[in-house]
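User: Okay, second chain of the day. Same drill as before: sequence in, structure tokens out.
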Amino acid sequence: MFFYLSKYLLEVSAGTSWGESLSFLRLFRYITFRSAGAALTAMVLSLWLGPKIIAWLKRLKFGQHYVDKAEEAGGMMGRTVNKRGTPTMGGFLVITIMDATALLWAQWNTLVQLTLLSVLVLAGLGFYDDYAKIMQQSNKGAASHVKLWVQGILAIFIAVYLWRVPATRNLISDVMVPFMKYPVLTGTIGTVVGLVLAALTIVGSSNAVNLTDGLDGLAIGCTLIVSFVFLVLTYVAGNVQVARYLQVPYVPGAGELTVVCAAMIGAGLGFLWFNCHPAQIFMGDTGSLALGGALGIIAVLIHQPLLLVIAGGVFVAEALSVMIQTTYFKWTRKRTGQGKRVFLMAPLHHHFEKLGWHESKVVTRFYILCIVFGVVALGTLKIR
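Assistant: Same drill. Structure tokens below.
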């Protein structure tokens, strides 16, 4: 909105006596300026609205009054705070501010609209899941197959839409992998693989961030780090000269996704102020499903879906720990009659809690690992 308003004012004032005094509005042409504005606006709004949202959720009694899965399993020696009664659905704050701020500061091209609308859909799915948990006062929310169906339909719609539109078809038909200058697959095979890869990236990222959301500040902190990586990647992908120099795919309009990433970072920083240990509010599936989906969608839109596997290495490890644990338990139970575990508990962060690590130690060390993965992901820009 600010971009269009500044453009209109500059056009109207051109050649007039007050045209020079409005020349500063040319700053709104620059993605870097609007990204900084989006980040600051989102953070200020989060810090301002945070206490009000927390109080509102408490009045509605939208809190976690049940024992979570980790506490239910027992053995959490590193926990010193009782988390019952803490308001959940805090993702409502992050997603609302992120979408509103991005609309204020970005140009509304197709890539931005597709991302923001998809985030709202996933936030709605997460809200349904959180609400079901609150009503039941248990860890069992919406049925897992319902969530997968909604995520899958949304992901397939995005993938097919991108393939059907001539301007974005190559985002699907040409399969890119990190460290390579050129597509590894094209044509019919590339299209089939690209459609599957795009859908899996969106669904997988959404669920991986959701699985990571188990400790105070863990999911939102890691999301912030990965978002910063994609802040750089979207700017590179949307700048034809930089993309050509670094030999990465140039995607027209992708630069505006930099503003979306900045809005996500600002809103996330403000939320982390209240979500750090001991948390005053939980993000819930309302936030984790939507933010994870946003990262997956942005990765697809800048033609780098597999790069998210590197940048989001912590999310991948969390998801793999659950898959390995579940598969091994079922396999050993089928063979021996008694299920065995690889980890003390999955997702992975609970394994370290079971080892006696304090919650803050787990979160801090996962932040460090996330930064390392982010640096490696950015390093691929020069190693091709």
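DSSP finds 16 helices and two strands in the chain.

User: Thanks, on to the next one.
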